[in-house]
Amino acid sequence: MVIAIFMTPSSASRWYSPLLVGTTLLTVAIKAAPVKAQQMYNPIPLSGNNKEFSSQLSKQDIPTGEGGFARDYQVKLKKGDQIAIDLISEDFDAMVQLIASDGTIVAENDDGPEGTTNSLLFTRIANSGEYIVRVRAFGKTGGGDFTLKINHLQPSKE
């Protein structure tokens, strides 16, 4: 960035300064150092039909603003897919969300069956595309170890 100030000898006399008297051009140059872009949002891609793995929510994940953390996994789903998403944790009150590419929440579950704080979600996909499976801690329960299972369900053959 270059800033230029043009002064004629007559305007310099009105704005008297020992540095500017008789000066017709004062140029100040400021060069900004290039900054490497930092990607703030980076969902973890998952592939294959059935997925099961264990991991941990921590302070390195997405803060929820309620004292907990969240992590996003990206999956490709097809119209008509029937899926079950099971989120299990002994360390925090688990909550799972399925989010469409436009940011709308397709389905979510906080507390699964049997009165546990684990989450179990069943849904049928209306549109093919990229989806986000968000693993998060509900409220101020923080983070900790979890197991995530994503299964494609087979329709019954009658």
The helix content is under 10%
Helix count, per DSSP?
A: 1
- Give the ordered list of helices and strands: EHEEEEEEEEEEE
Number of strands: 12
Which sheet architecture does the biggest sheet show?
Answer: 6 strands, mixed
- How many separate structural domains? 2
Regions with little confidence, pLDDT below 50 for 5+ residues: 15-21
Q: What general outline do the C-alpha atoms trace?
A: globular
Intertermini distance: 72 Å
Helices, strands, pairings?
Layout (H helix, E strand, L loop, with lengths): L1 E5 L2 H6 L10 E5 L14 E2 L5 E7 L4 E2 L5 E9 L4 E7 L5 E7 L4 E5 L9 E6 L4 E9 L6 E9 L6
Parallel strand pairs: 3-6
Antiparallel strand pairs: 1-2, 4-12, 5-6, 6-11, 7-10, 7-12, 8-9, 8-11
